[in-house]
Prior knowledge:
2 domains; Spore Coat Polysaccharide Biosynthesis Protein SpsA, Chain A; two-stranded parallel ribbon; 9 strands
Amino acid sequence: MYETALPPETRNLIRSMKPSPLVIGIPSYRNIATVGAVVSAVAQGMDRHYRHLEPVLINTDGHSFDQTLDLAMKIPVPASVRRIGTRYHGLPGKGSAIRSIMEAATLLGARTCAVIEADVTTVTPEWIPALVGPVVSGEFDMILPHYLFQRPLAGSNDLLAHPLLHTLFGADLRTPLAGEFAMSGFLAGRMCDKDVWETDVARAGLNSWITTTAILEGYKLGQVRLGERLHVSSPIGSMANRKFLQQVGTLFRLAYIYRKFWRQENIRRPTPLHDRWQPGARASANSWPSAKPVKAAIQKSMNRNTARLWASILLPENLARVHDLIEHDHKPFTAELWAKVVYDFFVVYNQGEGDPDRVIEALIPLYHTRLASFLEAGMNLDEDGRDALIAEQATVFDSEFPYLLNRASSYVPWPRPNLHPQAVP
Length: 425
């Protein structure tokens, strides 16, 4: 078990440096094709807008074997930007990388800490004041982006995290699982001190955990527009499925642990969208992705136990509708059915007697089915129409909240099949 994500030599280096009010980190893993442009854009933004703060840029890498960190450290940066390069300790994953950035910010006495992912291809220097400006000024404890659109996909935000957090805790955050964010140095230090770093938070569950924790602990959150977010990512497949499992599992677990706060007025507060900070970018005309690769992933994400798990998780009427959708792929997966399906899985994940990870795995093909319908519905819409489509899903989650309460209060485990592979004929 690692007590810190920063190796000793990096901690010693940081302790020898002059403190800085602003630290921006770039976590990376095998991003040799994109990390150079990200480093250059971030460093230019820091120099252009925050030179007087003597900012620090830290590249923290997950032990890439393709010289990602070496390239990141070779990219020329302005003299006003001090730079650190390191490899983190701890469980492999994005969470451990970001923990190391927050630890560095704490050691440097930073008032503001921000993160920009290394695979983004649309980052510009103007993203920097947009993200960190509202925190540097003291107006907010944490800033998340409101992207005009994300590609390849943003479904876990639009179809799960956004509607669930909006319904349960009143958080109107458009992109709660955003890869980019800024937070106060105090909040970064608080996050480092939490006892979660041996869980999925250290992997891909980090953004679910940070955002939910910030909401429930009463920090002041805001949003800024960052235009379109394009990034290089792995194709839909096993890696994406593991990320989905960790993100959604963390979200489901936290939302249930803090169920006493569901719909409590004392935590329901607006999350302003500060247009004065936005870089002013617009989404490109062809920014809406095709549903074809998502449809192709539906069957690939199913296994011989999936249907059995559905029978143990879904209420009979929902199960019948799901089977009808799978058999007739031309039928739309409605927002109303999706809300009920998610609530069924949410309850069984937290109250069921089986392996919670298996529950999320069984949700993946249904998520792909709903995402395909969602993408097809938005194909011919403009930006306002697509925003309305996303808002509709959140509204439907909200209207189905009584269903969730009833499902949670009346849940009795269904007879579960033996799910050990060797027991399946």
